[in-house]
UniProtKB/TrEMBL annotation:
Name the record gives this protein: citrate synthase (unknown stereospecificity)
Coiled coil regions, renumbered to chain: none
UniProt pathway annotation: Carbohydrate metabolism; tricarboxylic acid cycle; isocitrate from oxaloacetate: step 1/2
Record's signal peptide: none
GO MF, one example: acyltransferase activity, acyl groups converted into alkyl on transfer
Highest taxon above the source species: Bacteria
InterPro entries associated with the record: Citrate_synth-like_sm_a-sub (IPR016143), Citrate_synthase (IPR002020), Citrate_synthase_sf (IPR036969)
GO biological process: tricarboxylic acid cycle
One Pfam family it belongs to: Citrate_synt
Root EC class: transferase
Length: 266
């Protein structure tokens, strides 16, 4: 505890460099007038500026918009976070709660946000180690021994990640496909394909590499990614709301093989 001194210093006010609303007058967004200086920014540009404090250029906005469009929002209700949104719909909850719950469970260990953070963190660490004189094979072997996985490589169900080709095509179109981190991501894949496990790259590595090449830190990349699944969740919610209540993936009782304590009489 630091004592009440800091509480008294912040009572009734909050020092901020992020922004302020002046009712009936203007809005300041990270030191700039929202209605004058930022009025031409698309929403993705405003999001990135809010996260990083840097105004992205047109190609960067197109890249980060494209990552969301091509890689994150499949409207498949079987997917774990979409299923949560659909369950909210089948119980007649609100769309806001459905999206909130779906995005909350997107911070999963195997899919979603945590692998994204680990992927960009791994690429940043590898680049630093290479610049310090380490060999890529040595780094990869050490990582596998320590963590048993390489973030951004390997995929359940299928080895091929269908998102890599369209995202790489977009990156090539806007001349972002040859950055140092993208090259590093493919170098790591080549190293892994020569090993016993033969792990292919998945979209987490490529998206993280493209973000790192544009100067995003681990934390900034995480903040950018938080809402990215939302466009796939909403269609699942909307469809579930239109159908009768409670019919989303029902499971009859006789399909449940219970192996716990027998029924007890109270």
């Amino acid at each position: 505890m630091q004592g009440p001194k800091y509480l008294f210093e912040n009572e009734d006010h909050w020092r901020t460099a992020m922004g302020a609303w002046f009712p009936g007058e203007r809005v300041v967004f990270r030191g700039k007038d929202l209605f004058k200086e930022l009025k031409d920014l698309p929403w993705m540009g405003l999001l990135l500026y809010g996260i990083t404090g840097r105004i992205p250029n047109g190609k960067q906005i197109r890249l980060f918009d494209g990552i969301w469009t091509l890689c994150t929002s499949y409207p498949d209700p079987r997917l774990w976070n979409n299923r949560v949104a659909a369950l909210a719909g089948t119980t007649r909850s609100t769309a806001a709660l459905a999206l909130s719950a779906g995005n909350a469970v997107s911070e999963a260990s195997i899919y979603g946000r945590r692998p994204d953070i680990r992927a960009i963190d791994f690429l940043l660490r590898v680049k630093c180690q290479l610049e310090a004189g380490a060999e890529i094979e040595e780094i990869v072997i050490k990582e596998l021994k320590k963590y048993k996985i390489i973030p951004g490589y390997g995929r359940p169900i299928t080895r091929k990640d269908e998102r890599i080709e369209p995202l790489l095509s977009l990156a090539e179109e806007i001349d972002f496909s040859h950055g140092p981190y993208v090259k590093l991501a493919f170098m790591i894949e080549e190293t892994l394909l020569q090993g016993r496990r033969r792990l292919h790259m998945n979209i987490a590595a490529l998206a993280a590499a493209l973000a790192a090449d544009q100067g995003l830190s681990c934390r900034e990349y995480y903040h950018y990614s938080i809402l990215s699944f939302s466009a796939g969740m909403l269609p699942c919610y909307v469809e579930a709301v239109r159908k009768p209540e409670g019919v989303f993936f029902p499971l009859s009782c006789d399909r449940i093989q219970y192996k716990g304590k027998p029924r007890r009489v109270w």
